[in-house]
Amino acid sequence: MRAARLITYRQPLEVMTIPDPAPAADGVVVRVLACGVCRSDWHAWSGSDPDVILPMTSGHEYCGEVVSVGARVTRWRVGDRVIAPFILACGRCPDCAQGHQTICADQVVPGFTCDGAFAEYVAVAHADANLTSLPDSIAPDIAAALGCRVTTSWQALVGRAQVQGGDWIAVFGGGGVGISTLLLGKALGARVVIVDTTDDKLNYAKALGADAVVNAATCDAPQAVKDITGGGAHVAIEALGVEATTVSAMRSLRKMGRMVQIGMPAGDHTQMALPMDVLYSGQLSVFGTRGMPSWRYPSLLSLIAGGGIDLSPLVTRKISLNQVSAELAAFDHPTPPGVAVVTDFVS
What we know:
Blueprint: E1 2-6, E2 14-17, E3 28-37, H1 39-45, E4 56-57, E5 61-69, E6 81-83, H2 94-97, E7 121-124, H3 127-130, E8 132-133, H4 140-144, H5 149-160, E9 168-172, H6 176-187, E10 191-196, H7 199-207, E11 212-215, H8 221-229, E12 233-238, H9 243-251, E13 253-261, H10 276-282, E14 285-288, H11 297-305, E15 315-320, H12 324-330, E16 339-344
Parallel strand pairs: 9-10, 9-12, 10-11, 12-13, 13-14, 15-16
Antiparallel strand pairs: 1-2, 1-4, 3-5, 3-7, 3-16, 5-6, 6-8
């Protein structure tokens, strides 16, 4: 099969032919229909993720069709259209039994701890515990974003911050996570402010229904959010993983507000100086989140399939395997609105 392999950090992926994967006894092999290019892939490409051992086939936001099935798999058959979270949990440990698959100690993460989905085929571990049926009404390029950005945003809003209709949400970062949070937040009945430093992303967010936008390069963003929301956001979402936006997100909250850290802190940002006086005096709640447990998929897929949310504006670029490297390198700088999804694996 053709695959885009990370051989050397911060160098173009090498598109090459490698052997097709075989399913583990409790796994399946999926023919990849689409795979998103995510900022987390950039962390792997840049050498910031210690889990990655080279060489590696990157890619973790995928959907596809089952083409082979391990002997112990009971729920899936060849031909099933499926989607999986990027954290593949074991399904057997105490954390999994309590529904906390994202903290499973025996998790497998395609593109980071095993070969991923910038390839024609990908092996999916622990299939019965992780895969979810993909409705025919959801196009593969849209479904690909459900492996990471959309699902992580859904978990942040519903599982961590417990957003209610009428809440103000301040989103720091207008990329894929930020736009996902905007679309999902509006579907939940919340009001959303997008904060970024580039006008094209802010204009795109406004066109997609953001109640307000703030250019952090031209003003005091936390104060602007407080002015817009009448005292501060109920929920702040940090979508970049850097100290400046994390501090601003905390400062944008009203008292008793909730902040969710979605952005992955890496490199120089693994240690941050945070305004703990703001947390203390405001009696804030700060949550971390990473991925989404597979049992939350049905509610999200029902919302999408039922027309409760249109995610099509999220995908702005459909690309081939040969174009992935350029998308990864672009994360070194402000990127265009929307996300790129690989839909062509053969040319």
